[in-house]
Amino acid sequence: MQLKRVAEANLPTPFGDCLIVGFEELSTQRDHVALIFGNISRTESVLARVHSECLTGDALFSMRCDCGFQLEEAIIQITEQKCGVLLYHRQEGRNIGLLNKIRAYALQDSGYDTVEANHQLGFSADERDFSICSDMFKLLGIKNVRLLTNNPDKVTKLTEAGMNVVERVPLIVGRNPSNKNYLDTKANKLGHLFSK
Question: Which among 106, 121, 131, 137 is least surrounded, fewest beta carbons within 10 Å?
């Protein structure tokens, strides 16, 4: 187990009330959170989203990506089911960090795609560690998930880390002229699926 469950509290949101649970990585002290809507202990397969942090999309309304759109739609779908969990995975910019993400944006402005920009900065296309998310699910007592994602690699990595992903639920929202090339690159180079 790479992290510990540290604290929890009630959190009212515009979408409904939830329980926010904080986790801390044992080796780095980095923190992550889960938002739990409804009683997940009564559900055999929990509708879940592993959402990697994107300050620009989630909080600053960037239209360069689909992250903020996906965050909102995932919470809407979970609350419509009256039960589910969203893991907020604090690995900004596919885990290259906020400042490097801004550097990657600058490279994209000059013609590189999102994968090429990461490579130019000395990173792989995706640096995230999803085994942390598997540990979060386990600490919440979740064994089976219906995962809201367009990324089959996320399903594979969670499965390899011991999670039972019983279904991949598409989360196709937010396409616009500003993120068309970004989404096309995610489909063509990272294998994301954008059809239902």
Answer: 106
